[in-house]
Design goal:
The protein is of the alpha+beta class. It has helices at 16-29, 74-81, 101-110; strands spanning 4-11, 36-40, 43-50, 53-60, 65-71, 86-89, 127-130, 139-146, 151-158, 161-168, 172-174. It folds into 2 domains: 4-110, NusG, N-terminal domain (Alpha-Beta Plaits), CATH 3.30.70; 127-174, SH3 type barrels, CATH 2.30.30.30.
């Protein structure tokens, strides 16, 4: 089985939501959950001012396009390609090109779905040195790792007492 990647599909203008609904239903009815994982319409919050009133709305970032996380194989390609409202995949000719990890991370971050959890390599109880901020040069043991937020909680010795400190991954280095 191939590797799952994000692909961009082109839709008729204004049909993005209908395509997402149709594709979700087709994936379920054709039992393609093991090859087609997620369908996303990139949206962003925008503040509009109408008649002196501030209103927050969700706006499509790429009108006419929908993102699909899938394993590209003939059967999964067929399911997506033949979904009502889909005009085709984005890519040269008939060969869809997956988005790079950096491109999808940027889109997800913009949508507030920051799946791009920082890669860290830290382990619990590991000794680390603080390299920036008010605790610069202190050494402490990691007590908690919050990868989704990019933060660590460690204990440093200050004035003869163990003090808990929460820092960003970038503020510490491994010893």
């Amino acid at each position: 089985m191939g590797e799952k990647s994000w692909y961009v599909i082109h839709t008729y203008a204004g049909y993005e939501n209908k395509v997402k609904t149709n594709l979700d239903k087709r994936v379920e009815s054709m039992e393609m959950q093991d090859k087609i994982f997620r369908v996303l319409i990139p949206m962003e919050k925008v503040v509009e001012i109408k008649n002196g009133q501030k209103k927050t709305i969700m706006r499509k970032v790429f009108p006419g396009y929908v993102l699909v996380e899938m394993v590209m194989e003939d059967d999964s390609w067929f399911v997506v390609r033949n979904t009502p409202g889909v005009t085709g995949f984005v890519g040269p000719g008939s060969k869809p090109i997956p988005l790079s990890e950096k491109e999808i991370d940027n889109i997800l971050r913009q949508m507030g779905m920051d799946e791009a959890t920082p890669k860290h390599g830290f382990t619990l109880k590991e000794q680390v040195r603080v390299i920036s901020g008010p605790f610069n040069n202190f050494i402490g043991a990691i007590e908690e790792i919050h990868a989704e937020r990019g933060k660590l909680k460690l204990r440093v010795s200050m004035f003869g007492r163990e003090t808990p400190v929460e820092l960003n991954f970038e503020q510490v280095e491994q010893l």
